[in-house]
Structure formats: C-alpha cells, structure tokens
Amino acid sequence: MRLDFFPSRSLTVYLARLFITRILAVLVMLVLILQMLDLLSESGNILGYPGNGEAQLWTYVSLRIPQLIARFLPYSVLLATIITLATLNQNSEVISMKAAGMSAHQILAPLVLTALVISIASFAFNERVVTRATATLNVWEKQKYGPMPKTSDVRANVYLRDGDNILMAVQLSGRDAAMRMEDVTWYRRNADGNILQQVRAPSATYVGPGWRLDNPRSFDVQSAAEKPIAPLVVAPQLTPQRVALTGVDADGENVVQLRQSIDRLEASGRNTGELQAAWWHKFSGPLSAVLMPLLGAVAAFGLARSGQLFFRAVTGMALGFAYFVVDNAAIAMGNFGGYPPLLAAWAPFLLFLFVGETVLIRTEE
User: Fold this and answer.
1) Could you count the other beta carbons within 10 Å of the beta carbon of residue 79?
2) Is the dihedral of CA 96, 99, 100, 105 positive or negative?
3) Domain tally for the chain?
4) I need a surface site. Which of 69, 119, 175, 298 has the fewest CB within 10 A?
5) What 3-state class would DSSP assign to 200?
6) Does one domain contain both 173 and 277?
7) Is the pLDDT of residue 134 over 50?
8) Is the pLDDT reported for residue 205 higher than 70?
C-alpha cells in the first residue's frame, strides 16, 4: 500500500470535479422540489395578508432557500457520494485504481477533501446568510406576513414585565442603547393584576433609564376614554441588557452573537444548556459533510457484476441517514438536559467517524 495519502494530481482533480458536480446537481434538485412544495403550503398565508402579492412570494422564496440549502447540503453530499462511488464501481474505475496500488483511503481522499471545503463554505454561508434570513423570516411569520422588518437583527412579539406593569412590542431590533421597539403597548396595572391604563405607541426608544413612547395614545379603563398624550417614559427598570435576555433565537444568531447571549444569560443565573448545545452544533453540523464520503464508501468497492452493488449503495445510504437520526436525537437529549451540550453536539460525529473507519478498514483494507 502506498504511503501517500492522495493519489496523483490529475486523479485527485478528476475525482473532486466529479464529486462536486454531483453534489451541486443533487442539491439544486432537492432545493427546487422542496421549495415548490413549501411555497404551495405557505402561499395562502402570504397572500392572505392585505396588499401582499407576487413580490412577497419571491421575498419568501429568497428567505427560505438559504434555510433549505443549509439543511439539505449534508444530505446532498451523502447522495452524491453514493452516486459517484457507485458509478466509479460500475465502470470498473475503482478496480483500475486498486490495481494501480491505491488503497481505499487514497481513493476516498479527494472526496473527503472536497467535502471539507464544502463544510467550511457551508459554515461561512450559515453565519453570513442563513442566520440573517432565519431571523427575518421568523419575525415575518410571527407578523402573519405583514410589513417586512427593516433589518435582520429583529425579534417579534416581545413580552416584558416591569414590576406589576407589562411592556409588549410586536418587533424589537438593535442592540444595547440603539435598541428600538415597534408597535408598543404598555399596561399599567395595580397590585391585583387589574389593568388601569393602556398606552399604545408606534415606537419606543431607550432613553436610560426607561423607554420613551413616541406619539402615544392612552386608554383609561375606568373612564373608557382614549386620547393622545405627550411622549411618556415607562419601565425604568428594563435595561437593554435585561431585554436582550428574552427570546434568544439560536438559529437566528451567528456564533459570536449567540456566544454573547449565552454569556449574558449565564451572568444572570439562567440555564443555557440548550443554547450551548446549539452553539456547538453550529460547528459540528456543517462538518458532518466530511463524514458522508466515509459512510457511503461501501458503495465504491466490491465487484459490480456480483449483484452486491445495489445492496452496498443501500447500506451506505442507511449509514448516512442513521447519522442524521442519531444527531437529531442527541441534540434533543441535550435540549432536555439528558446530555452535556458538548457531548450532544459532537458525540454523533465522533461515533460515526469510528463506525465509518471500522467498516472501511475491516472490509477493504
């Protein structure tokens, strides 16, 4: 067996190009089919909001496609691995490479390298595009596909308590002193929880301390009278740091923002196990593409004319899908506190790395 990890340069480029074209083809096919099905199910809700039309449908598609790409890219790598290796096996190219003295690991090396590059690109795509699209789409869905948020750094339907009083906002954007609320309602209540006054305002800004309601209208419960009032400052105890602790969306924040949210929650004594598992999974999730050539490697070897090629392809596909099942189960267990966050995010990856290596070594090396 040769000691070089990679085959010749020309063969490496050939296998990598073959692999990447199939990944892109499978990914485009999956995303187009799933996007059409998803749009069919959501188009009624989007067009149900007064004033929405074709432009809003295209906006929804532009926000949904990044999520579909991020979710199904590892599946595309798995299916492309099966297609590529099965084709090479059926055309006797694998036999030719092994006859030239190449090991199974050398045959798979260009595919693993390509998958590693895809994992890095997937991580960057998730951090720069998917998180922003997810945050915007989540807010837009909670607003029943009403007016689009102006920025991607937003949260919807924020509910805050200030002693006996309640401050609610349909939309919250910005961070720290630049935080801003839209469509705000403030309820002044007595110690028994009864509402004494309701104040509505189109927006609220932090003035330190408190939040200034711009152009507010007050409704007095006792007199049942509504009237405009002067700008009002409410909730002096609600600082931007305290507001930031509510409703953290792990999918809508990148690794830096999520790490900052976790640190703030830990400083306030909150449980952050679920968010920490999600933070670690932002690294292990994209890296799962590296496992797919190893788990699907069984489709590359064995004689095609022996009748075992289909069985080997199904076995490789089963190993790949088993990883996704175990990975989702581990994250769910981590969210419930059954596993430590680090173990929940990385245990499936390491487990199937050993499984794939064991299968490859015992059957081919």
Assistant:
1) 22
2) positive
3) 2
4) 175
5) strand
6) no
7) yes
8) yes
Quote the tokens at residue 63.
């926000």
Instruction: Identify whether residues 130 and 195 lie together within a single domain.
Output: no
Strands (E), 174-216: 180-189, 195-206, 211-214
Q: Which tens digits make up the pLDDT trace of 333-353? A: 887 777 899 999 999 999 999
Token pair in block for residue 294: 């190893």
What is the Cα–Cα distance from 232 to 212, expressed in whole angstroms? 5
CA–CA dist 134, 302 (Å, integer): 44
Vertex 37: Cα angle to 31 and 43 (nearest 5): 115
User: Across the chain, how many H-helices and E-strands are there?
Assistant: 11, 8
Could you tell me the pTM of the whole model?
0.78
Q: Is the dihedral of CA 306, 307, 309, 315 positive or negative?
A: negative
For residue 224, which amino acid is it? A
Residue with tokens 């188009």: 43
Say which residues have a Cβ less than 8 Å from residue 102's Cβ, sequence separation at least 6. Answer: 2, 7
Q: Is the peptide bond before 50 cis (omega within 30 degrees of 0)?
A: no
- The residue assigned the tokens 């390509």 is 114
How confident is the model over 178-196, as a mean pLDDT? 83
Range of the domain at 203: 164-236
- How far is the C-alpha of 12 from the C-alpha of 166, rounded, in Å? 63
Q: Are residues 218 and 112 in the same domain?
A: no
Say whether both 20 and 105 belong to one domain.
Answer: yes
